[in-house]
Write a structure and sequence with these properties.
Blueprint (H helix, E strand, L loop, with lengths): L4 H21 L4 H11 L8 H9 L4 H12 L4 H22 L4 H8 L2 H8 L2 H16 L1 H10 L8 H17 L8 H32 L9 H13 L3 H18 L5 H14 L6 H24 L9
Length: about 325
């Protein structure tokens, strides 16, 4: 993949400045606790990091906890440290769009997407998980698999994505009548990943149970309409309808059980990525949807400037 580095270098200060501006005003809501966490990490020793994370932000994910701890411990201002992460995230999105030769207007729509703004500001741990997922898609191969499989250790929500990927791969193997046996040349790699994930999920077990109990709502079918809408649009314009159906099906189930707020971002991300790699984001229906998410960013940013919390007062 050949990228004009000069253009990306030009975007770095724009990404950084936008991040610093938003973070300067985003001081309420969850950020109250993350600011407290970051300050507490200055006097926290290595082996106490997870206990502090659990106490202050109910976090069980070690990757996010230790990444934030490193920044605090070496004395970098929180907003500057998070802004560097945001530059890394936005640059990854830009490179992913360039990799798939997306049109210039799709760059604007994706970088101004509501969920991207949320990741930049209010979703600290999920941001780190998304950085891993974006670069997993960018690199592909074994590095991509590693980053994807370890992303739940940055935020448990990305576990939902692993379920979608697993269901899609499993069903496709059956349909294509392929052997379910792993090729010998890949056996050691997959075996290593499975063992590592079992170990990590053993340590995260309590965190998973706590999160499910906290968000378990069973609100019913009203919670699935947004994912269902994405699925219908995807089926209308996708070149691979089976894949988009299998990837979004688990999200319907999780929306029904946990409520749509917890899974909407993953649903939209899957939808956008699958259409990106199919070169179908330029379809009129896709553009209308992306335009909606960009417009949705405006009241969110306005709330940040007015109240210090983008989620105050509304959410559609």
């Amino acid at each position: 993949m050949k990228i004009k580095k000069s253009k990306l270098y030009f975007l770095y200060p724009i990404f950084f400045s936008a991040s610093m501006f938003l973070l300067k005003y985003y001081v309420d809501g969850d950020q109250i606790f993350y600011i407290k966490l970051y300050n507490q990490y200055k006097v926290t020793e290595f082996f106490s990091v997870m206990s502090v994370a659990k106490d202050l932000v109910s976090s069980y994910e070690p990757i996010s906890a230790y990444i934030l701890w490193i920044g605090s411990k070496i004395g970098i201002s929180k907003n500057i440290y998070i802004s560097f992460m945001n530059v890394f995230l936005l640059s990854g999105i830009y490179l992913l769009l360039k990799k798939h030769k997306a049109k210039w207007y799709l760059h604007i729509l994706l970088l101004s997407n509501f969920y991207v703004i949320v990741l930049m500001t209010g979703a600290e741990r999920l941001k780190i998980a998304y950085i891993m997922l974006v670069y997993a898609a960018l690199f592909g191969g074994k590095i991509g698999y590693m980053l994807t499989f370890f992303s739940p250790l940055a935020h448990l929500q990305s576990s939902i994505l692993l379920i979608s990927i697993g269901l899609n791969n499993f069903i496709n193997q059956i349909i294509k009548k392929k052997s379910l046996k792993i090729k010998k040349r890949n056996f050691s790699f997959y075996f290593f990943l499975v063992i590592i994930m079992i170990i990590f999920y053993f340590f995260l077990y309590k965190g998973i149970i706590d999160k499910v109990q906290a968000y378990l709502v069973f609100k019913g079918f009203l919670e699935i309409w947004k994912v269902l809408f994405l699925l219908v649009i995807g089926l209308l314009i996708s070149k691979n309808r089976l894949r988009i159906f299998l990837m979004l099906l688990p999200l319907l189930i999780f929306s029904f059980i946990l409520g749509d707020f917890r899974v909407n971002m993953i649903s939209v991300s899957i939808f956008i990525y699958l259409l990106l790699i199919e070169d179908r984001l330029k379809h009129p229906l896709s553009i209308i949807l992306l335009l909606y998410f960009s417009i949705k960013s405006y009241p969110f940013i306005l709330n940040i400037l007015k109240t210090g919390n983008g989620f105050n007062g509304w959410l559609i």
